[in-house]
Amino acid sequence: MFIRIILILANALLINLGFLFAFLIRYGLPFPEYNFILYKKSFVFLTLIEQVQVFVDLFKRVFCGLFLGTLLSVAFVYAFRSQWSAFPTSIFILSFFINLLVIFKANQQDWRVDCFHCLELTDQSLR
């Protein structure tokens, strides 16, 4: 259970790093305050949305979770477009692919540990 909590926290960190990297790719440094202020105000909510679906087979879970999280994030920004109209859609698209790669790789190690643990238990029960 402790490892799962650490993995969730690591995913939250990686998701936000993905958003920051997407801003960096899209705008370079310094980030435009007009666009970036919205991320600063909503990063907790965006992280929670991205985390909602991050766990079904390894790649499928990450892909589906991030895809749904990104769609929900875009829908949320669209619903509140009068207040958040400056949040660029391109950041969602870039962060989706960046987060897909990073979180897939981070969870791949956890998946291997689970598989090896299952194999050890199976091997012990066969003896």
Task: Describe the protein's architecture and organization.
- The protein is mostly helical and 127 residues long.
- The protein has one domain.
- Helix content is 87%, strand content 0%.
- It contains 5 helices and no strands.
- Helix 1 runs antiparallel to helix 5 (89-126) and helix 2 crosses helix 3 (58-79).
- It is globular.
What does the secondary structure layout of this molecule look like, with pairings?
Elements: H1 2-27, H2 33-52, H3 58-79, H4 81-84, H5 89-126
Helix pairs in contact: 1-2, 1-5, 2-3, 3-5
Summarize, please:
This protein is mainly alpha-helical and 127 residues long.
What is the distance, rounded to the nearest whole angstrom, between the alpha carbons of the first and last residues?
Answer: 28 Å
Largest sheet, in brief, is:
none
Q: Which blocks of ≥5 consecutive residues have pLDDT under 50?
A: none
Assembly level: single chain
Q: Helix count, per DSSP?
A: 5
Shape: globular
Order of helices and strands: HHHHH
Number of domains: 1
Using only CA atoms, what is the Rg?
A: 17 Å
* Helix percentage range: over 70%
How many strands? 0
**Class computed from helices, strands and strand pairing:** mainly alpha
Identify the notable features of this structure and list them briefly.
127 residues, mainly alpha, 87% helix
